[in-house]
Specification:
Blueprint: H1 6-21, E1 33-35, E2 42-44, H2 45-61, E3 66-69, H3 70-75, H4 82-85, E4 88-96, H5 98-102, E5 109-116, E6 119-127, E7 132-137, E8 141-146, E9 152-154, E10 168-171, E11 185-186, H6 192-200, E12 206-209, H7 214-226, E13 230-233, E14 249-252, H8 255-267
Parallel strand pairs: 3-4, 10-11, 10-12
Antiparallel strand pairs: 1-2, 4-5, 5-6, 6-7, 7-8, 8-9, 12-14, 13-14
Helix pairs in contact: 1-2, 6-7
């Protein structure tokens, strides 16, 4: 398997943040924002230009790889089929949390994952405002890299006997609504990347989504797993970015807590 320098990927994400995304933060003109499927599904010139830039820089890091991003798929949904069929695929969300970005809220990020024959092998979440990157290599752990500092390895440390009433959760899946009251606190950032980041650092214990677009989950699921977390579809199946699913996904600190949450939900059905 070809080697990949994570610093080169981080550098590409930082460049996009510094030259394209941050200059537009709190500085967008009305004509630089438009809606896609609904009023909450927005895209900006920062999204489009960032993806175009990464479509050039990231494939150069791994000859033969291709890039599939949220904005390119919005124009051609057939591109999703390449995730499982092509050997090396970069999956990119140029600005995750675009609605936050448009409204001047700080919870937005850039996400990238490298998928090999349908399996995520690298994941990156870059926070432009902090100039920090959360990243992981399959089988090698999860790390956070701050500017000009050595990377720090992350490890989720949560007591196995922690009760649901002590868990902080971000619930986006309507199928999980019946058990929302069982958790200690419910909070949603409106940005999948920031939710997975908080879960990987242990600040958030549970993350639940229904909509499973690959750019929202491929990086975060790998990073969370490499930090010691446990993520599965509610069916119990492993998440695969190349497969579309109508079944929600649930991330928890460990398998025991995950199973307890699923069992509680099933008992209330």
């Amino acid at each position: 398997m070809p080697s990949l320098d994570p610093n080169a990927v981080i550098g590409a994400l930082r460049e996009v943040a510094e030259t394209i995304i941050l200059p537009r933060y709190n500085n967008l003109e009305a004509e630089q924002i438009r809606t896609k499927s609904n009023a909450h599904d927005v895209v900006t010139v920062a999204d489009e230009e960032s993806e175009q830039h990464l479509a050039v820089t990231l494939p150069k890091l791994l000859p033969g790889s291709i890039l599939i991003g949220e904005e390119s798929v919005a124009k051609n949904a057939e591109l999703l089929n390449h995730i499982a069929s092509h050997e090396w695929v970069w999956i990119v969300d140029p600005v995750d949390g675009t609605l936050n970005f448009v409204n001047g809220r700080p919870t937005f990020c850039t996400m990238a994952a490298l998928v090999h024959k349908g399996e995520t092998v690298w994941g990156f979440i870059h926070d432009p405002l902090r100039n920090a990157t959360l990243w992981a290599e399959r089988g090698a752990g999860a790390f956070i890299s701050n500017a000009n500092e050595p990377p720090v390895k992350l490890s989720i440390s949560t007591p196995a006997d922690l009760k649901m009433s002590g868990l902080n959760a971000a619930i986006y899946d309507k199928d999980m609504a019946p058990i929302k009251g069982k958790f200690g606190r419910i909070s949603r950032s409106g940005c999948a990347g920031h939710d997975y980041w908080a879960a990987a650092e242990g600040r958030l214990h549970v993350v639940s989504f229904r909509k499973l677009m690959p750019w929202d989950h491929a990086p975060g699921v790998l990073i969370h797993a490499e930090a010691g977390g446990y993520t599965r579809l509610l069916s119990g199946d492993a998440y695969e970015p190349g497969k579309q699913s109508t079944i929600g996904i649930l991330a928890a600190p460990n398998e025991q807590i995950w199973a307890e949450i699923v069992a509680t939900r099933q008992n209330l059905e």
